[in-house]
């Protein structure tokens, strides 16, 4: 009986493999798949809508403060793809934000390697300005403050320098 069962398993496996291949091929788009362009870190061109350096305005809208947050962070980051959290936090502090509203993730992994990305945040009332810098560039967003009162999830480092 084992010999007969072995003879049935091989054709079934081949049939399942062929069906799976056909299914996956049928789901693929026609023609060659073009890879998506990769994001690169670059300096933004001067723009009349970019606020000039100054300080954050607690009375301004979150969107206005986000534009300024982006401006300050892009200046701080410069040409360095991952400058480290201290550079970004120092830039935000120099433009009026105190350490009590700032958060930043570690620059290194638990085993001592350089982090692939650094996240940072500024808490403005019940909203958070979130930023991230990585090899792919800088990005930002606005999100509500988390239930625990923080902006970032996970491990953050003390801003004690």
Protein described:
The structure is a single chain. It contains 3 helices and 4 strands. The radius of gyration is 25 Å and the shape is globular. The chain has a domain at 62-144. It has a 4-stranded antiparallel sheet, with helices on one face. The termini are far apart. It has 161 residues and is α+β, with helices and mostly antiparallel strands. The chain has helices at residues 2-27, 62-77, 85-94, and strands at 102-104, 117-124, 127-134, 137-144.
Quick structural overview:
The chain is of the alpha+beta class and 161 residues long.
Low-confidence stretches: 8-48
Mean pLDDT across all residues, rounded?
77
In what range is the share of β-strand residues? 15-25%
What spatial form do the alpha-carbon principal axes imply? globular
Question: How can the largest sheet be summarized?
Answer: 4 strands, antiparallel
Strand order of the largest sheet: 1-2-3-4
Counting DSSP E segments of at least 2 residues, the number of strands comes to 4
Rg, alpha carbons: 25 Å
**How does the helix and strand content classify structurally?**
alpha+beta
Distance between the terminal alpha carbons, to the nearest Å? 75 Å
Sequence of secondary-structure elements: HHHEEEE
**DSSP summary: helix tally:** 3
Helix content: 25-40%
Domain DUF6993: 74-154
Signal peptide: 1-28
Biased composition (Low complexity): 35-44
Organism: Ruicaihuangia caeni
